[in-house]
Specification:
alpha/beta; Rossmann fold; 5-stranded parallel beta sheet; 6 helices
Length: about 140
């Protein structure tokens, strides 16, 4: 099983983005190998925030209806793993032990969710953001 970072979801929706084709190709390749691709609720929240923001705010300028359609697509195409009861404690252990502050606490939450489910691999265009977390970040360009 492999977890998708939210940046994969945003790239999947954009044919204009240079990474859009790469994202679609690597997801297709993983699924063709019969590997399970997972997402967690955090992916949906983060996607919504990016999808509904303006381009000036680094967003995709989708309507709420468009973003809703994409959320439905993601949940049909990928396995949505619910947040587990041990997620807050695992997240706090990661941010506390590694002295993680600010926005990186979101990355630590994804890593904690992965730990809850025993998932080791994260497909992400931002591998450097996860370098000191206990997961393996896989660059879609190299996958």
């Amino acid at each position: 099983m492999i977890l998708l970072d939210t940046n994969l979801l945003t790239r999947l929706t954009s044919t204009a983005h240079p990474h859009g084709g790469i994202a679609r190709l690597v997801v297709h390749k993983i699924l063709s190998r019969r590997e399970q691709i997972a997402i967690v609720p955090q992916n949906l929240y983060e996607f919504w925030a990016v999808a509904t923001r303006t381009p000036a705010a680094n967003g995709l300028a989708m309507t709420t209806a468009q973003a809703t359609q994409w959320l439905g697509f993601f949940q049909r195409r990928f396995t949505l793993l619910p947040d587990r009861d041990d997620l807050p404690a695992r997240w706090h252990e990661l941010v506390n032990s590694r002295q993680i502050k600010g926005f990186r606490s979101h990355d630590a939450r994804l890593a904690a969710a992965m730990q809850c489910y025993g998932i080791c691999r994260l497909l992400t265009f931002n591998g450097k953001d996860f370098k000191d977390l206990p997961i393996t970040a896989i660059d879609p360009v190299l996958a």
